Structures
1.
Amino acid sequence: MRVDILGITVDTYSMQETVEQIRQAVDGNIPLRVVTANPEMIYASERNIKLKKLINSADIVTADGIGVVWAARRLGVPVLERVTGIDLVQALFPIAHEGKWRIFFLGGKPGVAEQAANQVVLKNHGITTEAMHGYFSLEEEPDVLEQIRHFQPDVLLVGLGAPRQESWIVEHPRLASVSVGVGGSFDALAGIVVRAPKCIQDLHAEWLYRLWKEPWRWKRQAVLPCFVIKVLGQEFGFKTP
Ligand code: UDP
């Protein structure tokens, strides 16, 4: 089931259901494109038709953040829980370990994807990884593509930043069974960015913690009140600027 939030159709899948869909796609070698849609992306897509099409044409669009879970509830199609990029990949790794998957990590500053992949393999040694940073030029792109094709990943994790990663995945299809845009997840996996303690995550205040730790994000988070007003506009049928 999907819920329409400002024109973006978000899946109501739980984390477990999302992981199961990905597992089936890898087992059956069925192409699957996953977008983790946060409020900033949903809000931006209102004014960006290309982005809206990119997101809505994905096979799975997850509710990335408590703002999206809240919006779904307001609009009468509840989503059980948030399925963020970092939580999704962390839930996938044990399954990938069991299934001996090949995972390619693309993105982040030089060295970060390798560090993230090494950390993941330490705990999940059934996984085979390869990594490449996300600061390559257009001229270098063919080599990056060749490296990924040669590796033949089951899963391609793309952390080039949203929404660039979403269009990059669409522009380069069939590199892996499953492709997921994961934003800054490699920074967290590598330990460069420390996530909010579990109790803060459980209070649904991780966004506040990130704002405290990375105050330069305020500009991005400043759209959150606008997102809320737009969602209320959709719920009660009033026009918003
Ligand atoms: N990034 C990249 N190449 C670029 C620009 C950004 O690999 O040309 C990476 C950056 O190093 C960081 C991630 O993209 O790891 C940030 O993505 P986003 O802002 O979507 O992450 P969020 O913080 O929202 O998870």
2.
Amino acid sequence: MASRSRGATRPSSTAAAANKNLQFKLVLLGESAVGKSSLVLRFVKGQFHEYQESTIGAAFQSKTVSLGDVTIKLDIWDTAGQERYHSLAPMYYRGAQTAIVVYDITSTETFERAKNWVKELHRQANPNIVIALAGNKADMMDKRAVEHQEGQEYAEENGLLFMETSAKTGLNVNDIFMAIANKLPKNDPQVGAGQAGRSRTGVDLHDTSPQNRSRCCSAFVGGSSS
Ligand code: GTP
Ligand code: MG
């Protein structure tokens, strides 16, 4: 069933979104050892390592997901949580359309640190950024220090998506990435194209116009102008 109807009339805005390939930049932030790399490893490769090495600087992975007729490529920047790398973070969240801020449900310090990341994103990131809060290590219920309700309430007050996750068991890992993918704007990527380095929507990979190409590069090379 060929649904390539480029020349056909578009009867509705739903049809206008058909067969779109969009690309978004996603950044993970949070205290060291909360499980950022483990969440990415679980989502991208379906694996978990008990002895996951601490990230140096940042690591990159990408994964493509489908949402009906829309294909979404997520370019995932997994940042290093150690304090000495903090100053690098803006390079990764600048130009990001979405962020997952992670804490460890067994540690109140990491929850406080997550709140600081949310504040920093609200102050300095793309104003339309979609933020999800992940309370990770939800398999360690017996050591729980942050109640589910605390995370949920903070997320509601601050307009964040929220889930408790476990990179170890896989609980809610796909779900949180898919919830984000669902929430990202699927409207015409030309909208907002004038804002250099602050793209409000994803890049339409089918659109090879020069305007789209320049949006692509300013959004994915740490906001640098080329
Ligand atoms: P940095 O790279 O230093 O910022 O740390 P990170 O946030 O990427 O944490 P990482 O994924 O390296 O995980 C730290 C440790 O926690 C590793 O030993 C993981 O195996 C473990 N871990 C990660 N996620 C989970 C989880 O959901 N449950 C349990 N029980 N352990 C986890
Ligand atoms: Mg890591």
3.
Amino acid sequence: MINLDKQKLPRHIAVIMDGNGRWAKMHTIGRILGHKKGAEAVRTTVRTCREIGIKYLTLFAFSVENWSRPSEEIDALMSLLEEYLDKETNELNKQGIRLRTIGNIGSLYKTVRDKLDNSIKMTAGNEGMILNLALSYGARDEIIEGVKKITQEAQQGKIRPEDITKEKFGNYLYTKAMPDPDLLIRTSGEYRISNFLLWQMAYTEFYFTDVLWPDFGKKELLKAIAEYQNRERRFGLTSEQLQKNISANAKI
Ligand code: FPP
């Protein structure tokens, strides 16, 4: 039984869902069936995060680099996403979850974009949790796009270069108005961030597990959060400074 401290929950969890292909190989079935099983793990993770009170969940569902996979695999991933939206939008509404996306959404198939638009509209009023799907997402592209927007605005005199701050720049990214992830989970024993949320993860705690994504269930998620709760997040300060800040805040 894993007990979590409700006062110390990560506000935002980001997940690199890796290992569907290896899971399929292990079970001597095709890669696409591995992704199908991966989509089931998505359902469990979304439900569990909502249940325990996580406010933002960002899932890396399709990277810009994934466009180079075999076309049958891309088609299957897109169909799984459509199927997820068809089947789960009502469920998201029931659970008070709002859907959002980050990434180059314009590059997705029109059928996928239409379904995403519909689900985003249908869930727009929900305030329980934000489910943020990273689709056709690449962090370097996101940063370059942000730089282009901000330099255009500077040329138009809307912002002065000397007024550009870290906080302001954050508003030019796909994730504007979202807090940075507190916890990143990556499954399948790989220790990389693979061009995911490079700007936003400056102070994120990383949790790596050998478990393959299709096997990542409720217990695995709780284990990751419990480990996060045992970490000391210092944001560049010393332990002593942190303790002082905590006691000072407690007095206020
Ligand atoms: C990585 O496994 C996973 C992906 C590239 C896609 C993630 C997609 C899903 C979990 C299913 C559909 C998503 C939704 C939101 C319904 P991999 O293929 O790279 O695995 P491998 O490294 O073992 O080959």
4.
Amino acid sequence: MTNSIFVLGSLNADLVIQADRLPTPGETLQGSDLSIYPGGKGANQACAAARLGAKVAMFGAVGQDVFGDLLLESLTNSGVDSGGVVRSERATGSASITVLPNGENSILLSPGANASVSASWVEGLAPKLSADQLVLCQLEVPFAAVEALLKISNEKGARVILDPAPAIELSPETLRLAEIVTPNQAECAVLLNRESQQPRTFEEGLEACRGLHARGVRTAIVKMGDLGCVVSDGNESFAVEAYQVDPIDTTAAGDTFNAGLAAALATGSTLREAVEFGNAAAALSVTRPGAQSSAPSREEVERQLQSR
Ligand code: RIB
């Protein structure tokens, strides 16, 4: 039985401007006033899982600057153990995010301190990892560090959820080390090496799952935005429809999904129950601005589940 969640990943200050559309090359476009939110896929997943009631420890790096303070404060306020976040010589990672009127976002990352997370540092975390932990990782810290974590987790017998975001090609040997892999549609296309063919329907998503299994993925969850998601463990496959909501900011919806999935699995839910829990959490998050600021509580998710 899993009793706590171990997150390795990025911590970013999200610099968000709302705009009617994206600027074209060479163009200067007026947007909204700037909002600054705590973000980063790793920290978003950690904060959201903790707000959903899980016991969570975060590992990563921030700079020795005010953005680093902002991120550590957000972890603490969400109830995450931030003792595993070190302060690097490099500036805190940041993300320039444009949010469009339909809630869609575009993100440009500056890795900063996230890039100082190394494989050798992760190897030094091995004594903190045990079989009763559920490990969450993404790809906003160097791949060598994630790969080291995947190997240690497997040696220890810990379950791993890998969010392959931002997408890179991954070998079957790497993909096999995670119990669950959770690409969105674009990331799925990269993993399948057919970037022009994102799955757009549940049928295409389930077909993509079969392709992911052939590339080493044990359980695939393809997050399909306002459609919902498809799930396949190689034996059973199913689709879960998204809730109909009015999105204002989809930033971190995928992170909130993974947090909900992990928080539910950590308390003994089945895969289907955990996917439904993550789906409800993600639906709530898109109705609120920002990344960590949009994560719902367990009570809100339970109410959302009952609304169906
Ligand atoms: O997944 C959303 C996150 O991606 C943002 O918070 C941003 O920091 C980038 O990491």
